[in-house]
Amino acid sequence: MDHRPMDPQTPLWQAITVFRMAALAHAALLVALNAGGYAYPAGGWLVLAAMTCWTGLTVAYALPRWRTWPVLCADLAVAVAALVVGGWVAGPAATRLSLPAVWVAAPVLAWAVHGGRRAGASAALVVAAGDLVARGGWRDGVPEQTVNATVLLLLAGFTVGHFAGLARDAEQRLREAARREAATRERERLARGIHDSVLQVLALVQRRGTELGGEAAVLGRLAGDQGATLRALVAGAPAATAPGDSGVDLRALLERHASGRVTVSGPAGPVPLPEPVATELAAAVASALDNVRAHAGPRAAAWVLVEAEPDAVTVTVRDDGAGIPAGRLAQAASAGRLGVAQSIEGRMRALGGTASITSAPGEGTEVELRLPWRT
């Protein structure tokens, strides 16, 4: 059984097909009743035959690959041609009733479903111009029938286009909700596995390191810090979303690193960024904090400051540790140790931002990550 979700526009296209067939039957009835009064009676039946053939071809709208602008333009052109030719066939009778009748509204509805309100209104005006030509309105003024038909077509195109847009938006929200639900389920599955394995190992290392003392105690403390961070990640929400914004709150992501030795400060309100951008920027900050734990010294403290400026967001990671000797980063990169070059500087370059590192032996290190706002 096919469980793929139905295209939200499919029911609308099906409704247009039903409308077109019903309108064709109405046009056939009008031709049967009025052909005797046409200037060219046989021509009326030929126009009706052409309309019937085109109605059969537009059943292809049931397949999304045929819902393209070239096909829609051809649909509109056929409708206008039916109006103009029908006006010539009917002769004076065209001033009372157009030969295709309401059948010409079908392309307007198709344009509205495919392109929205503006497209529907534009198609309505094109059909109205064809109706004006068919009734000879350029000679004796705009006929009342053309005015009424134009108003009805504009209302139909605008309303159906608006409804189609609402359907597309609803489908997009539904897909986003399904994606979030799937991500939440996967996250819960991973959290169970992490809790049963990694967190228990980290807790064991912390406990045994504390018991042994010395360098083992430092390892135990680091394991405890990592365990606390990991526990916060698996226990908290995937990301905080700012009210009214579809981005991820960078400040909330960085607050997970807060601990007894890491202070995180930022604006009172959220700092929303697109999810991939916020995730990469937070990863660069995490890498900088890893360097603090690994190289700044066992008693070093770190401060993370988030600033939302008018043209950029800036995150500063500062510590009071041992600092970095001159040339050490270049030596590490040439030796193949790319923690700073890739995890921090590389990430910021990929995001279109910058990373600057200021340090001196005995004076700590400051890492400034700056990312321009994307408008």
What labels would you give this structure?
five-stranded mixed beta sheet; two-stranded antiparallel ribbon; alpha+beta; 375 residues; 13 helices; Heat Shock Protein 90
Description of the molecule:
By secondary structure, this protein is α+β, with helices and mostly antiparallel strands. It has helices at about 10-35, 40-55, 70-90, 105-115, 115-135, 135-140, 145-195, 200-210, 215-235, 250-255, 275-295, 330-335, 340-350; strands spanning about 250, 260-265, 270-275, 300-310, 310-320, 355-360, 365-370. The strands form 2 sheets. It has a 5-stranded mixed beta sheet with strand order 2-4-5-7-6. It has a two-stranded antiparallel ribbon with strand order 1-3. The model is unreliable at about 235-245 (pLDDT under 50).
